[in-house]
């Protein structure tokens, strides 16, 4: 059924994984192969995202894909750099990503941030595939640049093949320990029941055609209904990051997942204290094919439709929160939309108690994930907020009436300079970490030692 093709939006694919396991390299390779396919112009760089059209994907996947099998326009990949928490990737109470690629280094296997990614994928019910990356580091590997993985396997020595297999089965075992039945993707019959593992190398590109094929198949089969959107409706998106931009002040890097956002639109954005109502001054996109993170020059666009990443410049955005909703008002009243945004934020609001610890996190999503982890560990929360650790947080933590609760747990946040001396002088213990469960474990160990 191709009649709805123009109203099917691009599926959003989040690329997740432990630090250095190769998320960015994988995206670079997908972009790079697209360039060598002579399709460079077809790729659009967005803020925090890369859009690869179907034709380009089928060009890269070669014999593995028949483009006439698909009516989705392509795939929009979102990189989750370094320690930046991908739990930011939320939308309407669920996951912003329609599908995910969990990148795992075949030699390292599961690492703390892999476990964390798995937890979030499980909780949000996001379908995913595992990219077992760095297959080329297998001793004695005979690289087959850009080839499908099974073809590449045929070119390997028995010894290299069995070493890779061993690592792959280790990962399949770790997935099983995490509660997911998984297998090498070509053995998976039903991707709804089993997780496909795709061995590949971001460095040589072998196995990348397979990954693209599996992703297209997954999106097409399971998500077509969710991809049907009103392309002209008021835009809805999620703040990925709040950033100061020279000449524009505070801006929000946003992924639009529904409708269209136009320059001049009035928008409502979730803020630290209350929803921000403001008018868009500029919609900005990186110039074509420039590397996003080093790109300073933006192109102003008149409008942008889902799914896409865009930088929004507007007054009063300095209080906006990563992970918060962005909604275009259009033909409704601002009050209506404020209520919508409030309702969405209320879903995330963390349950607090009269006594407990202070929690700070970098984004709404990570705050929510922290709260879940602490609830499981039966640690009560006195106050939970997005943002760096400020003098006020120390003052609040000091009011806790049990010693073990005079603590601040900071996830992906910094201690502000003006709070340093307060912390020194206060009877408050600060815990900081970039892995949620380690943060919780550190705190639990501290409490145990205190009680000894
Ligand atoms: P963060 O964004 O910091 O979390 O890391 P990342 O997951 O984006 O990893 P990145 O792509 O930056 O790769 C980390 C290192 O691994 C780099 O030195 C890459 O060159 C290397 N690397 C990535 N993929 C491969 C691969 O398939 N083979 C080999 N040999 N090296 C790889
Ligand atoms: Mg990276």
TrEMBL record:
Tr-type G domain residues: 8-224
Protein name in UniProt: Probable translation initiation factor IF-2
Transmembrane segments: none
UniProt key word Metal-binding: no
Residues that, per the record, bind GTP: 17-24, 79-83
Source organism superkingdom: Archaea
UniProt keyword annotation of GTP-binding present: yes
Keywords: GTP-binding, Initiation factor, Nucleotide-binding, Protein biosynthesis
Stated family: Belongs to the TRAFAC class translation factor GTPase superfamily. Classic translation factor GTPase family. IF-2 subfamily.
Function of the protein: Function in general translation initiation by promoting the binding of the formylmethionine-tRNA to ribosomes. Seems to function along with eIF-2.
Molecular function in Gene Ontology: translation initiation factor activity
């Amino acid at each position: 059924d191709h009649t709805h093709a123009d109203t099917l939006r691009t599926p959003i694919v989040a690329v997740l994984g432990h630090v250095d396991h190769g998320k960015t390299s994988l995206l670079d390779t997908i972009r790079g192969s697209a360039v060598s396919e002579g399709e460079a112009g077809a790729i659009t760089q967005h803020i925090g995202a890369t859009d690869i059209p179907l034709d380009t994907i089928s060009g890269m996947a070669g014999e593995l894909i028949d483009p006439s099998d698909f009516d989705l326009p392509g795939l929009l990949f979102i990189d989750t750099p370094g320690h930046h928490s991908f739990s930011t990737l939320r939308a309407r109470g669920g996951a912003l990503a329609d599908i995910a690629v969990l990148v795992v280094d075949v030699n390292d296997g599961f690492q703390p941030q892999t476990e964390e990614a798995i937890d979030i994928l499980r909780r949000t019910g996001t379908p995913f595939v595992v990219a077992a990356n760095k297959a080329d580091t297998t001793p004695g590997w005979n690289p087959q640049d850009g080839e499908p993985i099974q073809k590449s396997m045929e070119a390997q020595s028995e010894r290299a093949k069995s070493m890779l297999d061993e690592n792959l089965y280790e990962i399949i075992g770790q997935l099983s320990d995490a509660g997911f039945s998984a297998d090498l993707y070509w053995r998976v019959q039903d991707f709804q029941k089993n997780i496909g593992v795709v061995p590949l190398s971001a460095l040589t590109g072998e196995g990348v055609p397979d990954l693209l094929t599996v992703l297209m198949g997954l999106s097409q089969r399971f998500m077509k209904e969710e991809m049907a959107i009103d392309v002209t409706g008021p835009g809805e998106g999620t703040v990925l990051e709040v950033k100061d931009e020279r000449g524009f002040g505070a801006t929000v890097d946003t992924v639009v997942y529904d409708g269209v956002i136009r320059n001049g639109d009035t928008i409502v954005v979730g803020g630290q204290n209350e929803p921000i109502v403001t008018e868009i001054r500029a919609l900005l996109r990186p110039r074509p094919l420039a590397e996003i993170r080093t790109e300073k020059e933006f192109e102003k666009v008149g409008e942008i439709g889902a799914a896409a990443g865009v930088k929004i410049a507007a007054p009063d955005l300095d209080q906006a929160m990563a992970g918060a909703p962005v909604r275009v008002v259009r033909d409704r009243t601002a009050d209506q939309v404020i209520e919508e945004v409030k309702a969405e934020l209320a879903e995330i609001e963390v349950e607090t108690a009269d006594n407990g610890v202070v929690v700070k996190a970098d984004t709404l999503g990570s705050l929510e994930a922290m709260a879940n982890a602490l609830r499981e560990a039966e640690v009560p929360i006195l106050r939970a907020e997005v943002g760096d650790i400020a003098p006020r947080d120390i003052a609040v933590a000091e009011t806790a009436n049990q010693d073990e609760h005079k603590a601040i747990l900071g996830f992906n946040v910094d201690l502000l300079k003006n709070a340093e001396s307060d912390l020194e002088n206060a009877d408050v213990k600060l815990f900081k970490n970039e892995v949620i469960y380690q943060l919780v474990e550190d705190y639990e160990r501290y409490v145990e030692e205190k009680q000894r």
